[in-house]
Amino acid sequence: MRSLPLVSSDHQAHVSFGRIAPYLRSALVIASGGGFALACVLTLVPLFGIPLGSWWEALIQTHGHLQIFGWAGLFVVGVGLHFFPRLRGALLVRPGLLPWILGVYVAGLGLRFISQPLLAVSGALLWKVLLVFSGILEVIALPAIFLFGSFLPGSDLLFSLSGPTGLALILCLAVNLWPAL
Length: 181
Description:
Helix content: over 70%
Radius of gyration: 18 Å
Mean pLDDT: 78
Shape: elongated
Order of helices and strands: HHHHHH
Number of helices: 6
Distance between the termini: 46 Å
Number of domains: 1
């Protein structure tokens, strides 16, 4: 397998697909390893007559969260970070932060995958703390994508937080911190 260059070949200083591809790969891994795997478990459990309880609801919520914020969210962000700057004719503000932002976001999703079902099963304080921490990581990563990976210049910071983006940030905060309350 050949590695893609980190700068585009058109000498426009656009970020090449090599920096964005990890977002798409992560979306696929989260979808297949988390979301689809949980869907299989959720489908087979009633078939085997296993009694449903609070763990069942936690698995449903975790499955939905991984599919929406992991699979769909990372895929849309990856495609957007690749195409929007080219459509607008602008550069990404800090493309070097993209791997760090992805790491924080995937860590938050991974903690959610582990902590939410285990909290429902055991009720231990550790899982509650990790669930809150997972929400905090995701809430940190989403604005970072728009602020540091954005194609908007720094003077448009207020504009980038208004409208649908600001609504998405509020929705992400509510969805991530609600289970911990």
